[in-house]
Amino acid sequence: MQVLLSAGERQSAELMQKVRQHCQALAIAHEYVGDRYFARTTFRQLEVTLPNGVRIIGLPANPQTARGFTGDVLLDEFGDQPPQVGALRTIMRGGGERESPQLSAVSHQL
Fold this sequence. Notes:
Elements: E1 2-6, H1 9-25, E2 31-37, E3 44-49, E4 55-60, H2 63-66, E5 72-76, H3 85-91, E6 103-106
Parallel strand pairs: 1-4, 1-5, 5-6
Antiparallel strand pairs: 2-3, 3-4
């Protein structure tokens, strides 16, 4: 599983739109879910599933939404602010598809 953490829900939706565009440009079949909400929250569940079963989940960096997911983590635009440690701790605990999940960060310079 790939978990993409963005600063907020709007940024998360934008990043997941880019994931969908890449899938379409590369002619990779995929299923998109963006009309459901996480249980007991107002956060949208944004998810792309590839034919091989890999799930790409887009989340705002919030421990409440990250709870229950394990996998590799990509921090989107976190150059100016520290990530929510609780969200990272929850996702990076291992026990998912791989024993030692990877952490990546992307940002731009101002």
